[in-house]
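subagent[fold] <- orchestrator: predict structure for attached chain, return tokens only, no commentary.
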Amino acid sequence: MKIKGYASRTSVDRVGHVVAAYAFKDSIAARGLTGSRGVKLLYGHNSDKILGSIAKLTHLPNGLWIEAEIDKSISYAADVAKAIAASGGLSFSVSFIPSEVDLVSDKNGDEYLKIVKGDLYEVSVVPFPCNEDCEMSYEN
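subagent[fold] -> orchestrator:
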């Protein structure tokens, strides 16, 4: 199953964070998408649940775009693919360690933490993302 969408967006998430559009550029360049250090595709941020492979991580002005493939030959990944199809799609969420942050105030005076730079470890397929703008589309 091919999945795609925004892994990260530049909108304020549920915990009051904003991830800058190019926050993971250096990290992705250093880690790559394959191998033992590569950015992984997981289910539910569970390091024991690798779902398949990431084909592309593209930085766009409004977030980080992902294109990936779920490997249905992995038994639990096949179940996740079925859940994605049954529910009409799930969402994406990222796991990273921030290395540069700013406290920012918006025009209303509300403060939020802006992740300027971070070390991206994985992108997960999740039913409930921290940033609700990280929706997924899929094709079997």
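orchestrator: received. Logging for downstream: The mean pLDDT is 96. Residues 2-130 form one domain.
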